[in-house]
């Protein structure tokens, strides 16, 4: 057996956690810090609260809550309004949140979600964004089935004939949608492509109401796609997640079942990038 007695400690791999890091018992937690975070999270959900209101609603003593708030205030995480005599989340909370957003990669965050979606549905899962009036596919997890959709990263597709494209168009306000459609020639790719502007608007209204879109052989015959939007911190739809597969497996009867998985995946990715699960909430 190889000896490590003379191993250089400086050469050892740095640890992100100590041994036993998964032990969540009381000995590995700081009760005062945990209590402080409870107060902080409570205030973040119910801003503009007086000390007595916070202590009463949380079931904590005013003295304990006050010590927590003053400590957080010293770090800029909360601030006190002396006129209204209420507490708010402070500017440092935004600074820390912005640092999280800078390290967040949409594609990296999406990969495990796409893989789970593929496993749940048995169909290819896709991630796409709007790029100069088209859908740009960023990532894909392919199904194991022999017949499958294939949109490699970098593929572009017209928004009006794409599940992800229609999911994003449906979340645009009237002015932005009008501008987007002004540069789109609604050409027919199949007999099912929507080529009438009024019909497309009606379809997008239904997409918005449902929270998901369906591309029913509108770009490729024999293929159906179901998509839902992903929202960022500003409640803007910045991406879409979809599943796509042959109509023999993705039939109209399957839409309700599959759309639930797709919406859940979009919801999960929205939260993973620090966004809102529903841009209208």
TrEMBL record:
<dbReference type="GO" id="GO:0003677">
    <property type="term" value="F:DNA binding"/>
</dbReference>
<dbReference type="Pfam" id="PF01614">
    <property type="entry name" value="IclR_C"/>
</dbReference>
<keyword id="KW-0805">Transcription regulation</keyword>
<dbReference type="InterPro" id="IPR054844">
    <property type="entry name" value="TransRegBhcR"/>
</dbReference>
<keyword id="KW-0238">DNA-binding</keyword>
<dbReference type="InterPro" id="IPR050707">
    <property type="entry name" value="HTH_MetabolicPath_Reg"/>
</dbReference>
<dbReference type="InterPro" id="IPR036390">
    <property type="entry name" value="WH_DNA-bd_sf"/>
</dbReference>
<dbReference type="InterPro" id="IPR036388">
    <property type="entry name" value="WH-like_DNA-bd_sf"/>
</dbReference>
<feature type="region of interest" description="Disordered">
    <location>
        <begin position="1"/>
        <end position="24"/>
    </location>
</feature>
<feature type="domain" description="IclR-ED">
    <location>
        <begin position="92"/>
        <end position="275"/>
    </location>
</feature>
<protein>
    <submittedName>
        <fullName>IclR family transcriptional regulator</fullName>
    </submittedName>
</protein>
<dbReference type="InterPro" id="IPR005471">
    <property type="entry name" value="Tscrpt_reg_IclR_N"/>
</dbReference>
<dbReference type="Pfam" id="PF09339">
    <property type="entry name" value="HTH_IclR"/>
</dbReference>
<feature type="domain" description="HTH iclR-type">
    <location>
        <begin position="30"/>
        <end position="91"/>
    </location>
</feature>
<dbReference type="GO" id="GO:0045892">
    <property type="term" value="P:negative regulation of DNA-templated transcription"/>
</dbReference>
<dbReference type="GO" id="GO:0003700">
    <property type="term" value="F:DNA-binding transcription factor activity"/>
</dbReference>
<keyword id="KW-0804">Transcription</keyword>
<dbReference type="InterPro" id="IPR014757">
    <property type="entry name" value="Tscrpt_reg_IclR_C"/>
</dbReference>
<dbReference type="InterPro" id="IPR029016">
    <property type="entry name" value="GAF-like_dom_sf"/>
</dbReference>
